[in-house]
């Protein structure tokens, strides 16, 4: 089946032109002006619309066991919601259980995602216990297309590794050409502050925020960059939120080190004033927490300076009932917020339509850079002949309002309730199939495929 998309304004990371795109099977077959429609082709008129590469969200947690519960979107509901928001590929985190193997964790996650995901997906492997056995498994993971290894420098006793494990992991990953990523915050310092607040009876969600001040992130970001520089491994900091941490990355560039940086949509758009005196702030209890307006300004500038390459979500939704686990103690609130569905439209409206970033930069940070860093380019992340026909059509003038009443995520509140946006995604193609059109899902459970990844090509 062929699809001909006519007269759209086709935007990639380095081009912008009015043209047609012809898909055949799962890939793009032709790009040009006045392309003739093959006899059996479905024709989509994109006049007045932008046509962009399908979004890639490299930071999502689907159906993840965490803090005594599971994140509430499954691979089915989460990838479906992602498609509605123009994200055609996600990278989810497999979590090694401390004391167990990487293989066991991978098998568990494959069991949840295979045959259920609606959109395309890949996995990062989170190494929570680096030991001689784990070391042996790294090359096997790389061979299977899992080329990025996540580390947590916080969540002691559950996910955190120490610096000795970090250096060992980096040395091994470097040997196999992979990438090490980090949740870069100082777990010991955070745990101390949490204990102090609890001892003082300071138990509301606001104290979650006060337990993770900027220094906890800046210190760990610098340490991570330093160890990565020493080992020579490709390094990537996930969900970077603040000026102090970005300055550590800036410092690393002065010795000609490249540390990739991902921020997330919430850190660009929301701030810590949402942590009020009541429990409502639990909706935004995530780690790291929301920061200050000056940090938002640093992050927007960082995107345009090329220091921040990726805008993800860290989608980790919990239903309101799950958030109640921490009603009497902020440290028990499951950390995370829902955003997988709205990253692209939020960034388009707040970034492109408000003139903070160019359309090309938008494509880079929502798709192309993640494809290059995580070894999926040019199959994913661009519009070129032979690439997967993952395409997003946006009506740039259409206004709409975010609400839990209309979203597709399996969570009963929205972290962006009432946000008014300019620019609406109207049609989404995934591997040559119309996946979403006019608000309706057109592909089913199991359509999503596992994407085997290669090495960094940035
Ligand atoms: O609060 C968050 N970020 N939850 C998900 C786990 C993580 O740290 O990324
Ligand atoms: Zn085991
Ligand atoms: Zn994290
Ligand atoms: Zn995360």
Automatic annotation (TrEMBL):
Belongs to the metallo-dependent hydrolases superfamily. Hydantoinase/dihydropyrimidinase family. Residues 50-434 form the Amidohydrolase-related domain. The gene is hydA. This is Dihydropyrimidinase. One of its GO terms (molecular function) is metal ion binding. It comes from Hymenobacter metallilatus. Keywords: Hydrolase, Metal-binding. The keyword Lyase does not apply. It is an enzyme of class 3 (hydrolase). Its EC number is 3.5.2.2. InterPro entries: Amidohydro-rel, Hydantoinase/dihydroPyrase, Metal-dep_hydrolase_composite, Metal_Hydrolase, Metallo-dep_Hydrolases_sf. The lineage of its organism: Bacteria, Pseudomonadati, Bacteroidota, Cytophagia, Cytophagales. The modification N6-carboxylysine is found at residue 150. One of its GO terms (cellular component) is cytosol.
């Amino acid at each position: 089946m062929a699809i001909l998309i006519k007269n759209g304004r086709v935007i990639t990371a380095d081009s912008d032109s009015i043209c047609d795109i012809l898909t055949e099977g799962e890939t793009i077959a032709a790009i040009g002006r006045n392309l003739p429609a093959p006899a059996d082709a479905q024709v989509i008129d994109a006049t007045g619309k932008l046509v962009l590469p399908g979004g890639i969200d490299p930071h999502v947690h689907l159906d993840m066991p965490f803090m005594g519960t599971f994140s509430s979107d499954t691979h089915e509901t989460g990838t479906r919601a992602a498609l509605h928001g123009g994200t055609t590929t996600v990278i989810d985190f497999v979590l090694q259980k401390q004391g167990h193997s990487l293989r066991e964790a991978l098998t568990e996650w494959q069991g949840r995602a295979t045959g259920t995901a609606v959109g395309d997906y890949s996995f990062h492997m989170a190494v929570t216990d680096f030991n001689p056995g784990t070391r042996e498994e790294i090359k096997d993971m790389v061979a299977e297309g899992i080329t990025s290894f996540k580390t947590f420098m916080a969540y002691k006793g559950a996910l955190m590794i120490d610096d000795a494990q970090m250096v060992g992991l980096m040395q091994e990953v470097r040997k196999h050409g992979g990438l090490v990523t980090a949740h870069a915050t100082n777990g010991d310092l955070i745990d101390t502050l949490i204990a102090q607040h609890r001892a003082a009876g300071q138990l509301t969600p606001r104290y979650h925020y006060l337990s993770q001040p900027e220094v906890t992130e800046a210190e760990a970001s610098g340490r991570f960059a330093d160890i990565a520089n020493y080992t020579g491994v490709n390094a990537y900091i996930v969900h970077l939120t603040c000026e102090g941490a970005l300055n550590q990355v800036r410092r690393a560039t002065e010795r000609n080190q490249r540390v990739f940086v991902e921020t997330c949509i919430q850190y660009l758009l929301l701030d810590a004033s949402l942590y009020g005196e009541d429990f409502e702030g639990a909706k935004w209890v995530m780690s790291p927490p929301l920061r200050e307006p000056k940090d938002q300004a640093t992050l927007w500038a960082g995107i345009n300076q090329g220091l921040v390459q990726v805008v993800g979500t860290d989608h980790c939704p919990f239903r309101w009932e799950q958030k109640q686990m921490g009603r009497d103690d902020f440290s028990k609130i499951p950390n995370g917020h829902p955003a997988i569905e709205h990253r692209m439209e939020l960034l388009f409206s707040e970034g492109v339509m408000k003139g903070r970033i160019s359309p090309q930069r938008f494509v880079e940070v929502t798709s192309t850079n993640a494809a290059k860093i995580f070894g999926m380019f040019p199959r994913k992340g661009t519009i070129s002949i032979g690439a997967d026909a993952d395409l997003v059509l946006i009506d740039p003038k259409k206004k709409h309002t975010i609400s839990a009443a209309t979203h597709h995520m399996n969570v009963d509140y929205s972290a962006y309730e009432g946000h008014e946006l300019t620019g609406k995604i109207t049609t989404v193609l995934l591997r040559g199939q119309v996946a979403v059109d006019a608000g309706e899902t057109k592909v089913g459970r199991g359509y999503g495929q596992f994407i085997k990844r290669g090495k960094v090509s940035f």
